[in-house]
Structure formats: C-alpha cells, structure tokens
Specification:
Layout (H helix, E strand, L loop, with lengths): L2 E3 L7 H6 L21 H12 L8 E8 L5 E5 L11 H13 L6 E6 L4 E5 L8 H13 L4 E8 L14 H4 L16 E7 L8 E4 L2 H4 L3 E9 L6 E6 L5 E9 L5 E6 L3 H15 L3 E8 L15 E2 L7 E8 L3 H10 L3 H10 L12 H15 L7 E2 L11 E2 L1 H12 L4 H6 L23 E8 L2 E8 L7 E8 L5 H16 L5
Parallel strand pairs: 1-12, 5-6, 6-13, 9-11
Antiparallel strand pairs: 2-3, 2-20, 4-5, 4-15, 7-8, 7-12, 10-11, 14-15, 16-17, 18-19, 19-20
Helix pairs in contact: 2-13, 3-8, 3-9, 3-10, 3-11, 4-7, 8-9, 9-10
C-alpha cells in the first residue's frame, strides 16, 4: 500500500528545518488528567503558573476568558493587543459569511451554449468541485445531445485578483495547503505524484496520478534509491518559474511508495484539462480550449437557477448544464473543522457575491470590506483586528483575543449560531482537535478553532463546563522558538484548567 502524505513541496527534513506546519491535525501529548476543581478566583493563578514557566520567559501570550451568558471577564492578559492569529482568522471569515449569506447559500458553476459549437463554462469560486462533479456536468451535456464541442471557454471573470495572497510565504505557495484560489477550483487545485524506489543506487521512479499533469512539468530527478531500512530524506521543490520540479534525497529500496500532493500552477487550465477528461469519458469530443474574462461577473442574483442571460457576450446565451456546491453551512464546517485554507479563501471571495466591485478591485479585497461591515454589525470592535486574507496564512494578519471572543459571543446569539458552533472541531473527537484533549476533562465539552504557523499557536472557542456556566475563550501564543507541540501542550493545559471551574 502506498504511503500517502499531503505535505509541502519541502518534505520531511527541509520542512522541519523551516518550521513549516500545514493546517492539519497534529498529535499533541494530552495534559495529565485530573479530577480537581477550582474556584473562579483561582483561575488567574493557575493560568499564570503556566505562562510564567522559565520555558516561556520570552514568549508573548494573549488570553481572554469570559462567561458566555453574562460576558463577565474571568481572565485577561493583553486581550486588547494585536497578535498573529494563524488559522483563528477563519473564525472571522466564516462568521461573516454565515451572517451575510446564510447557511443555505450555494455556489453555482454553469455551462452556457453559444453559437457555432462554442460552450462557455463560468466558474464562481466553488472550492468543492471534484472530478465526480465534472462528470455530472459532462453527463448533463450528453443528455442535451451535445457530442461535439468546437471550443470550450473557461470564463474566470467572477473571482478577480491574485490566485495566492501576495504576503503568503514562499513555502506556503509551494505547499498543497497554500493552493491557488480563483473562479475555477477542482480537486482543491492539487495533484499527486508517487515516488517509487527502484534498485539500490537508481533514481526513484515518478508516477503521476494524473498523466495530464506530467506534460505540464519538467522534472529534475536527483533522487536516489537507498539501501534497505534507510531513513527517508526527500525534498520536492519548484523553481521560481513554476514549471520545474526538483526531486532530491533518498528513499529506501524496501520502503513503500511515497506520495506527495502539490499545488497546481494555473487553476484555469488545470480545470480545463480535468473537464476535457470528464467529457471524453462521456464520449464528447472537445476541440479548442481557452480562458477568457468577459470583463463583468456573470451575475445570477446569489447563484439561484437561471436559464438565460442576455447581452453578456453580445447575444443571449442559454445555461445547458450546472452544478452547485454544498451549502455554505457545509463549506464552513469543512473550513473550520479541517482548517482548510482553500475553502477559507473561497468563503472570503463569496462575501463579495452580492456587492458592486470597483474597477480593478480584487474580489478578496471587496470580501474583506464586507467582512468588516458584517462583523461591526455583530458588535465586533473594528479596530481590534486587521486582516488581509481569509485563511490566516498571511503573517500580516493581526487579531486580538478580544476580537475573537467578540466574534464567538456575537455568533452565539446569531440565527446561524448552531451551524457556526457545529463547524468547530470537538476536543478529542473531530478535525484538528481529534488528537488533542483525549482523556481529559476537556474532551467532548470544548469546541474550538486551532491555529498554527511558525512561532504561533492559537485556540479560540466555547467550553460547556459541567460545574460552572458556559465559557468563551481565546488563547494566542506569539514570538517563540519553542516547537508547536510544546506550545499546544501548554495551551491545552490552560483549557483543561478552564473546564474545571466550579461555583464557589
């Protein structure tokens, strides 16, 4: 069986040296289980005991713990100060989207028929499309009697701006967790290669899960098959031009094939290649393909069904096939539970759907404007955060623990409160908290959003304390050289302490 690992281009050794931490679940030693209970007056001394350990003498901490019902503050350490939040940014993005669009909002991808055998597929930023959905589109076209397409146009007018945030770091955009985001996304804009050992001393064999991608990349294979039982030491990097993969390092001759998942370079043409394959599987012949922008988004009033759109390209066009995303509630659940960056950036773009974009304005920029307006209506202090993306990958993001708690407090009273809360990982059970808090008093009663980038660990969410009232909290750790696992263990210890509050 192949060893499939979703990882960055800088695999294993290089990734560890650079401190790259994909936004995936991490195994962290659980705090020591205990059945003790503490009074609210004792909370500060217990949390301070963790913060004041010599190990953390140079670390910057931000914490806020409040009663969910009354808003009473039980603990505050620099809660009004800015911190790098990592993926806790997703709390702001998903809260604003649920408030603005509602949990039942869906993203529609349409195929329009034009003259002379020309079809135009209009992408509107659905992050959930897979090969299976493209097959559904192909089947719909086949059912309409379409067996030959002279030209297929991918219209990417809907999502404008950079496909990756300019302030993301180089290791992020070389990683599957930093895949590009745009009007078209399929298979989360990533593909997989398998590195297979050969005879000792020979280069590794590269197998492509999608042979179409092999024609896009030039390979520089400097890898080596090592003797049996040698430690794996591999790196896969790409040059600045984007189409050269350099494979270096070694894999033991008796090791399982090593799978590496990589981001695509051009999402639009990746989509067209995958759609061509889906059409071929249904016996539909495809001639020329092209990427075009109509200049104006193809508005469909929040993506309900539509049969005709007039005068967009000089003539009336008819929708002949369409697919829809899962509900926004389901998209938000994947965004927060799995800390999926591509989904988060897509949710940010979706915030711009019903707005008028200024000439040259990036969709994400308009989404950020809507986010701020929406959160202000939710009573989140607009000066308590500054963000430039929807996922938290950017190190330019600044959020205070106060802002995160205000978001959580506001959403607890919102019409979509249950959807928002259900989107958060459950301690010891699901998502990025599945391997944390097991066997502690926090297991199953804490739901919270995780966050990790180099030198940053964050956790914000809700606690249903068994012997006290419900709590809302935010913990952010910044400016540290300590490994993420050490920081998580300290954060988890603090949260376990919060769960042990009782009325005194």
């Amino acid at each position: 069986m192949s060893k499939s690992i979703r990882t960055s281009f800088l695999v294993l050794l290089l990734g560890a040296q650079l401190g790259i931490v994909p936004a995936k679940a991490q195994t962290t030693p659980a705090p020591t289980p205990t059945t003790r209970s503490i009074c609210p007056a004792q909370l500060a001394s217990n949390l301070d005991a963790v913060i004041n350990r010599p190990l953390f003498s140079r670390v910057r901490w931000g914490l806020l713990v409040q009663s969910l019902n009354s808003g009473q503050t039980l603990y505050n350490r620099d809660a009004n100060k800015y911190f790098t939040p990592a993926s806790n940014t997703k709390l702001l993005t998903t809260a604003a989207a649920l408030q603005q669009l509602g949990a039942n909002f869906r993203i529609r991808t349409s195929v329009y028929q034009e003259a002379s055998g020309v079809l135009r597929v209009v992408g509107r930023g659905d992050p959930s499309i897979t090969d299976a959905q493209l097959t559904v589109l192909a089947k719909q076209l086949k059912a309409k009697g379409i067996t030959r397409i002279n030209k297929l146009i991918a219209d990417d007018s809907y999502i404008q701006g950079d496909v990756v945030q300019p302030s993301w770091q180089w290791e992020d955009v070389q990683s599957d967790y930093g895949a590009p985001v745009g009007s078209f996304m399929v298979n989360e804009n990533a593909f997989t290669i398998r590195l297979v050992p050969q005879a000792v001393g020979r280069p590794l064999q590269i197998n492509w899960a999608d042979p179409n991608e092999a024609r896009v990349w030039r390979l520089l294979n400097l890898s080596l098959t090592a003797a049996n039982n040698q430690e794996t030491d591999l790196s896969v990097t790409r040059d600045l031009s984007g189409n050269v993969l350099k494979i270096q390092g070694k894999l033991a001759a008796n090791a399982s094939p090593f799978a590496v998942t990589l981001p695509v370079v051009d999402p639009n043409y990746f989509f067209l290649r995958r759609f061509r394959a889906a059409l071929a599987s249904e016996g539909i012949t495809l001639g020329e393909t092209a990427v075009e922008a109509s200049g104006e988004p193809l508005a469909v009033d929040g993506f309900p069904g539509i049969s005709k759109v007039a005068n967009l390209y000089g003539a009336t066009t008819t929708e002949v096939a369409a697919i829809q995303s899962p509900t926004l509630g389901e998209i938000v659940a994947k965004t927060n539970t799995d800390s999926d960056n591509l989904y988060a950036e897509s949710v940010l773009n979706a915030l711009a759907v019903r707005q008028t974009r200024k000439p040259g304005q990036a969709t994400s920029g308009l989404g950020l404007e809507v986010l701020k307006t929406t959160l202000t209506q939710l009573r989140v202090n607009p000066t308590s955060y500054f963000i430039v993306d929807g996922s938290g990958l950017s190190r330019k993001n600044l959020i205070s623990p106060e802002a995160l708690v205000q978001v959580l407090q506001g959403m607890a009273k919102a019409p979509t409160a249950s959807v928002f809360r259900a989107s958060l990982p459950i301690a010891g059970r699901t998502g990025t908290l599945k391997a944390r808090f097991r066997g502690t008093t926090a297991e199953a009663i804490v739901v919270a959003k995780t966050g990790t980038v180099g030198g940053v660990v964050s956790l914000s969410g809700y606690i249903n304390t068994p012997n006290y009232e419900p709590l809302v909290f935010s913990v952010i750790v910044n400016q540290t050289e300590q490994p993420a696992r050490v920081l998580r263990q300290a954060v988890d210890e603090m949260v376990v302490t919060m769960t042990q509050l009782r009325r005194c």
